[in-house]
Amino acid sequence: MLSPAVLLLLGWMIVPLSMTIYFSFLSYNLLMPGMEQFVGFANYEFFLTDPAFFEALANTLLLVGGVLVITIVGGTALALLLDQPMWGQGIVRILVIAPFFVMPTVSALVWKNMFMNPVNGLFAHLAKGVGLEPFDFLSHAPLFSIILIVAWQWLPFATLILLTALQSLDQEQLEASEMDGAKFGSRFVHIVLPHMSRAITVVILIQTIFLLSVFAEILVTTNGGPGYASTNITYLVYAQSLLQFDVGGGSAGGIVAVILANIVAIFLMRMIGKNLEA
Question: pTM here?
Answer without folding.
Answer: 0.86
